[in-house]
Design brief:
The chain contains 13 helices and no strands. It is mainly alpha-helical. Helix 9 crosses helix 10 and helix 11 crosses helix 13.
């Protein structure tokens, strides 16, 4: 226990960044959308945050697949203690048994290894992402095992902080739009697009507030 405490104390403090466009987006959404006008004031100054590390963001996305926010954080905390520093190279050196003991499924271990290999091999154009279109980045990311369009969209929102991403397959967005706009009735993709028409060009921000309406714990990767 003491050794673990020392290791946690030695871990570097991760810088957190927030998007410059957030206040402008909130003003736009409050003017354009009745639900956003109600939701946004409920959460004060809280906003989207990124840790500024592409590999860590994608790794957290993989770990968080198909489990709750709380469970994902528990597994992540255990996993993050395994290497001395969370980098692609250090993850490739981890033992599978240790990763499984942290709570990762065999499939997620495979996904994390493939993610690390893509970073280490230079297959990803990390330095060019800031200048690339959303769809081009998605196409590059979905070539990694375990990363589908949803995970790539979460990366666009939480790492690159792209302002106008609409994750149509996100369960939280679907449920939140159903509850906030359709009195709990099922919603289709066309319904989502119709609602989100008023959000542009800040669909990512509106999506973040829809998530918060369901769970006061901020979503983060």
């Amino acid at each position: 226990m003491a050794a673990r405490a020392r290791k946690m104390a030695d871990m570097p403090v991760v810088q957190v960044y927030t998007p410059e466009y957030w206040q402008d987006a909130c003003r736009h959404l409050v003017r354009k959308d009745r639900v956003m006008k109600r939701l946004i004031p409920q959460f004060g100054d809280a906003c989207l945050e990124t840790r500024g590390d592409a590999f860590i963001t994608l790794a957290r996305s993989i770990i968080g697949q198909q489990i709750s926010v709380k469970a994902a954080q528990t597994v992540w905390d255990r996993f993050a203690l395994l290497p001395s520093e969370l980098t692609p190279a250090s993850v490739l050196k981890l033992k599978v048994d240790d990763m499984r003991a942290a709570g990762l499924s065999a499939r997620k271990v495979e996904y994390l290894v493939d993610l690390a290999l893509h970073f280490e091999s230079g297959a990803l154009h990390v330095r060019d992402w800031h200048a690339m279109e959303d769809e081009a980045i998605i196409a590059e990311l979905v070539a990694i095992r375990g990363i589908g369009r949803w995970t790539a969209e979460m990366f666009l929102i939480f790492h690159l902080m792209r302002p106008n991403v609409l994750p149509l397959d996100d369960i939280g967005l679907i449920n939140g739009v159903s509850q906030n706009y359709f009195s709990g009735d099922p919603v289709s993709r066309s319904d989502l697009r119709e609602v989100a028409a008023a959000w542009a060009p800040f669909a990512s921000v509106a999506t973040w507030y829809i998530w918060r309406s369901l769970d006061p714990l901020p979503v983060g990767y």
